Amino acid sequence: MQHLLSIQDLDRAGIEQLLDLTDRFVEVSQRQIPKVPALRGKNVVWLFYEDSTRTRLSFEQAAKRLSADTMTFSVGSSSVKKGESLRDTVLTIEAMGVDAVVVRHASSGVPWQIARWLEDRVSVVNAGDGWHEHPTQALLDCYTIREHRGSLEGQRIAIVGDVKHSRVARSDVLAFTALGAEVTLVAPPTLLPPNLDGWPVRVSHDLDAVVGDVDVVYLLRMQRERMTEHLVPTLREYTARYGLTMRRAERLRDDALVMHPGPMNRGVEISAEVADLPRSVIIDQVRNGVAVRMAVLYLLLGSGVERVLGPEPAPDAVLALEPEGASR
Amino acid sequence: MPTTVIKGGRVIDASGERVADVVVDEDGRIAAVGEDLSADRTIDAAGCVVAPGFVDLHTHLREPGQEEAETVETGARAAALGGYTCILAMPNTIPAIDHGGIVREVLELGRAAPCDVHTSAAITVGRAGEQLAPLAEMAALGVRFFTDDGAGVADARLMRRALEYAQSIQVGGRGVVLAQHCEDPVLSAGGHMHEGEWSSRLGIPGQPAEAEELMVMRDIALARLTGARVHFQHLSTARSVQMVREAKAAGIPVSCEATTHHVTLTHAECASYDPVFKVNPPLRTDADVAAVRAGLADGTIDCIATDHAPHTQEAKEAPFDQAPPGMLGLETALALMLTELDLPLAEVLALLSWRPAAILGVDDEHGAVAEGRPANVVVIDLEREWTVEPSALASRSRNTPYAGRRLRGKVRHTLLHGEPVVLDEEPQR
What's chain B look like in SS3? Predict the structure, then answer.
């Protein structure tokens, strides 16, 4: 794998291998000194054109635990404000000597453009592009469901809310269905993509009709500006129809999970009490995000990846996951 | 000027086809079309087609205001290489072509160009859609074609008044044409590609086909109301074509054009996220492409226009939703029509030459190879295969969506008023 731009860069086996690798990094993360020298000498740049606290911190933590060096390209204080083009910025950063660029951009497709300009000399990781994709979020979501359920095969998952503007939803649909889950999108028509031809999903406009029959309720963030675009009359009405209130949560199956990519609008798409229920695994998602991103960076930048992922020899024999300094 | 003979070609125009030599006199007019003719200078056309030069009703020349993307000179050179002897500049320059002074400037820039440069002018001041521009003032300088292209005239009442008022204006004894870029700006707002399967998947905000169709529908109604002709620019959807077909059958005075990109590319191209595929109206579905092709085949669509829209490399390297819409067209239009469409040769030439010439009212100068007419002639090698190489284009910009595409058919020579402006594929000025 040269880049991680889309979930479609991975097939089912690829996703499963990545989740298996994530297990190893979860173990690393639980050590007293949760750090390995796997990516020592590798340089990763955060190219975040859009505000992101949690995704950037999660990647940062992942890189540090792998002993990679990191640099942050902060748009607010950079030459972008002086009019530098995206392409010049990328080529400038490349010239400094980097191994991977982790990109977040408000415009769909920017990671593809960057990968084209870099001509595969540097790995590109999509950390969220416009409304399009957020593959590492989908991978950590898969990991979290697998952690609680053992597998996604046959799991009934409702993705609820603003699917239209959601990169999380697009990546999740691809990843969940690739792993055998049945996905239902639940939203008013105004918050769904205008055309769902070819999407392997069911659609419902009625959360109450769906909520009692699913294994996972995945809530999307509802943004205030959607009201000014005439997509919903008021947030209050949205909550009344599509929010996971305590009353609705009581109708969930006993073992159903509640998930959210964060940041939550408590009281809008999810009530505060529901967010704090034991069935809510939102904090697990955040925790797993670090290990998943370690696995992604390791796959892209680590040496001997094929050996790691191949059937033989056993992963433990080749994966250099000794605590830092232990081997010297 | 020495006399010239174009020797040994198949001459094709609206009157038919014959193998003949074409002699051009000292004044740049066609003196004779016949067998075994000679002159001071011979231009070889053996094995080639000799046709009237092409007329493009839709060329963005970017001057004044965006000379880094194109100038009248470079755009006209690209046109000549593409076989055009007449192009019509669009008014969305900076500032807009909306009064006599700028009309004069653009026409002046076009005087030395290797093809006839006509200019359209805006219907409304600044193309802002709020106040009628001085149409008669600009018509007095020779403007025959008015449009706010880049945007449609959204205000139905203003468009009605423009259609009514323009009926009082004539240029050279003929009425002027009001043309529309059909797009309901409220419905299309924020859309960067066709709204559909691909926009939904790619997470790019789309504009629905209905944004175009609503204005086509409205302007057909306004043409009926006023009796004035409306010319629809770059039609791109199946229902737009169908509405025009029905309007024509009902005797409503409408005409329309389609671009080469709307009959050769679909919205699936946007999956690359390369803004070279961003254009307005956007690339549509397979069904729309088929319908526009059918409209070309049955005569619903009167002509091919390029909507040649140069943009600089830096502008087209922006994220898809920030890049400007538009693609080059002048140097690839003929070869695309010959290679990718299944139309008889004479029909292709009609769509590129005499039909648009008639719409613009320049059919006394362009669109025929006949004695006494100005020698605005193109010589085409139908068998010549070539690969589109952006850096080899004469346009100042490089934003062709056809880079690397293998095409068949190329312009070998172009004569403008008898003077060779392209000889053996090389520009002469």
Answer: CCCEEEEEEEEEECCEEEEEEEEECCCCEEEEEECCCCCCEEEECCCCEEEECEEEEEECCCCCCCCCCCCHHHHHHHHHHCCEEEEEECCCCCCCCCCHHHHHHHHHHHCCCCCEEEECECCEHHHCCCCECCHHHHHCCCCCEECCCCCCCCCHHHHHHHHHHHCCCEECCEECEEEECCCCHHHHCCCCEECCHHHHHHCCCEECHHHHHHHHHHHHHHHHHHCCCEEECCCCCHHHHHHHHHHHHCCCCEEEEEECHHHCCCHHHHHHCCHHHCCCCCCCCHHHHHHHHHHHHCCCCCEEECCECCCCHHHHCCCCCCCCCCECCCCCHHHHHHHHCCCCHHHHHHHHCHHHHHHHCCCCCCCCCCCCCECCEEEEEEEEEEECCHHHCCCCCCCCCCCCCEEEEEEEEEEECCEEEEECCEECC
Nearest to A107 among B199, B201, B320 (CB): B320
The residues on A that touch B, with CB distances below 8 Å, are 85-87, 105, 107-110, 112-113, 116, 129-133, 167, 170, 193-199
Mutate to test the interface with A, among B186, B194, B202, B274 (most CBs of A within 10 A): B202
B189 → chain A, closest CA residue:
A229
**In chain B, % of residues over pLDDT 90:** 100
For residue B86, give Cα distances in angstroms to B101, B261, B347, B399: 22, 20, 19, 22
Q: Is the pLDDT of residue B284 over 50?
A: yes
| ipTM given for this complex | 0.90
Q: What is the pLDDT of residues A78-106, one digit of tens each?
A: 666 667 889 999 999 999 999 999 999 99
Residue type (1 letter), B258 = A
CA distance B344 to chain A (A): 36
* Helix pair angle (A86-95, A110-118), 10° resolution: 50
The torsion region of residue B417 among left (phi > 0), alpha (psi -120 to 50) and beta comes to left
Residue spans per domain, chain A: 7-134+285-318, 135-283
- Of the listed ranges A46-55, A260-269, B21-30, the least confidently predicted one is A46-55
What confidence tens digit (pLDDT) does each residue in B95-132 have?
A: 999 999 999 999 999 999 999 999 999 999 999 999 99
Cβ pairs A/B, distance under 8 A: 69
The 10s digit of each residue's pLDDT in B214-248 is 999 999 999 999 999 999 999 999 999 999 999 99
> Is the backbone peptide bond immediately before B281 cis, with ω within 30 degrees of 0?
yes
Cα–Cα distance, B178 to A213 (Å, whole number): 59
Would you say the CATH fold of A135-283 matches that of A7-134+285-318?
Answer: yes
User: Do residues A322 and A38 touch, judged by C-beta distance below 8 A?
Assistant: no
In Å, how far are A165, A228, A230, A233, A326 from A225, measured between CA atoms?
12, 5, 9, 11, 52
d(CA A143, CA A170): 17
Strand order in the sheet with B145-146: B145-146, B177-180, B230-232, B254-259, B303-305
Q: For residues B175 and B360, what is the distance between their CA atoms, to the nearest angstrom? A: 10
Fold of A7-134+285-318: Rossmann fold (3.40.50)
Interface of B with A (CB under 8 A): 195-197, 199-206, 208, 272-274, 314, 317-322
CA distance B55 to B333: 11
- Of B66, B171, B189, whose CA–CA distance to B121 is shortest? B171
User: Does B135 score more than 80 pLDDT?
Assistant: yes
Question: For A135-283, CATH number?
Answer: 3.40.50.1370
All structural domains of chain B, each given as residue ranges with its CATH number in brackets, are 4-49+373-427 (2.30.40.10), 53-360 (3.20.20.140)
